[in-house]
Q: What sequence folds into this?
């Protein structure tokens, strides 16, 4: 398998923070986001968009990123707030919360995707499929994904019938069938479930 040839910088003029989120398309659970500042010499041969990497390697990369990043932060917005402000705003809010936790001064924000809102007065660039282009965004995608997966594995213990340890809250066949049979939990996103199930379950 070919390894990603990621860029370490968008510009050599600025200290950059890469941002990405995980869990936008789920029926249950929060959306997580990470912000990462990497040193100029950062490299790991496995690093790529988290969706392209086996789970085992994502955790190898998480440990490496945590150990070698200049700084990193992970934050979340829960399902209730997602229902209140919608998933796009919740994803951006989670990224803002992660950026706010960074103590290192940064001058440019690199964001995966094409939507963002200004954070303070710091310049930002939205980059479609940026997690497969820039190392800092890829690193953020790894952290957001693994920390969210850990959260879903934890709440699976409370509601094992939904198999969140496997589907991580995404609308798999088993997950949807279980919702139809057992209803919603306090972790489900009601706005998402209304879209998927309409009048087939009570909200």
A:
């Amino acid at each position: 398998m070919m390894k990603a040839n990621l860029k370490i910088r968008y510009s050599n003029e600025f200290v950059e923070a890469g941002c990405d989120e995980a869990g936008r398309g789920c029926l249950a659970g929060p959306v997580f986001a990470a912000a990462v500042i990497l040193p100029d010499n950062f490299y790991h041969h496995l690093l790529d968009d988290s969706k392209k990497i086996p789970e085992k390697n994502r955790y190898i990369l998480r440990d490496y990123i945590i150990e070698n990043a200049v700084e990193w932060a992970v934050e979340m917005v829960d399902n209730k707030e997602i229902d209140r402000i919608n998933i796009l705003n919740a994803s951006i809010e989670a990224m803002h919360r992660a950026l706010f936790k960074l103590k290192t001064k940064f001058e440019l924000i690199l964001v995966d995707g094409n939507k963002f809102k200004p954070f303070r007065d710091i310049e930002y660039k939205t980059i479609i499929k940026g997690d497969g282009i820039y190392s800092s965004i890829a690193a953020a995608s790894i952290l957001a994904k693994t920390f969210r997966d850990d959260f879903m594995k934890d709440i699976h213990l409370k509601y094992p019938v939904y198999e969140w340890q496997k589907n991580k809250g995404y609308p798999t066949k088993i997950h949807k069938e279980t919702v139809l049979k057992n209803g919603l939990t306090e972790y489900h996103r009601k706005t998402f479930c209304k879209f998927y199930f309409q009048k087939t379950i009570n909200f």
